[in-house]
Design goal:
This protein is mainly alpha-helical and about 140 residues long. It has helices spanning about 1-15, 20-55, 80-110, 125-140; strands at about 65, 75-80. It has a two-stranded antiparallel sheet with strand order 1-2.
Length: about 140
């Protein structure tokens, strides 16, 4: 049984020390930070603008009440407004991420598309250029 524990712990140690696990952990941490940025972009910047455009409609308050609240019993309702709000949030988050990725890709493309230096002319082209220049000189005299 002790051998099984050593095998298990050795295998676990090998799993944890792989680079892919560390890369995954870094990705999760960076993804969490990126999620906070995108959520702030949507909730703090885009939603107020959209709320102003659509006249301040709060989707989250839209619902169909099945039974009213009585005493300590809460109401039973279909909260379709929360569903609509979730869809709007998803679309806005997807749009924000798309715009960010699109901007990064354009920046990378421009950086990678820096003009390459003109290729050095071949020996034949150099020779033909010399012949042309010589003929121009001689015909001009």
């Amino acid at each position: 049984m002790s051998e099984d524990k050593k095998g298990f712990f050795a295998e676990f140690k090998e799993f944890i020390s792989r680079g892919s696990v560390l890369d995954m952990a870094v990705g999760i941490i960076v993804g969490s930070a990126f999620t906070a940025i995108v959520n702030s972009l949507v909730n703090d910047l885009l939603m107020p603008i959209i709320g102003t455009i659509i006249g301040g409609v709060d989707f989250a308050s839209l619902k169909i009440v099945i039974t009213e609240a009585v005493g300590d019993t809460p109401e039973v309702a279909i909260l379709y407004g929360s569903f609509i709000q979730s869809i709007v949030n998803f679309i806005l988050i997807a749009l924000a991420v798309f715009l960010i990725v699109r901007g990064i890709n354009r920046f990378r493309r421009k950086k990678n598309e820096e003009p390459a230096p003109a290729p050095e002319p071949s020996d034949e082209v150099k020779l033909l250029t010399e012949i042309r220049d010589t003929l121009r000189k001689n015909s001009g005299k």
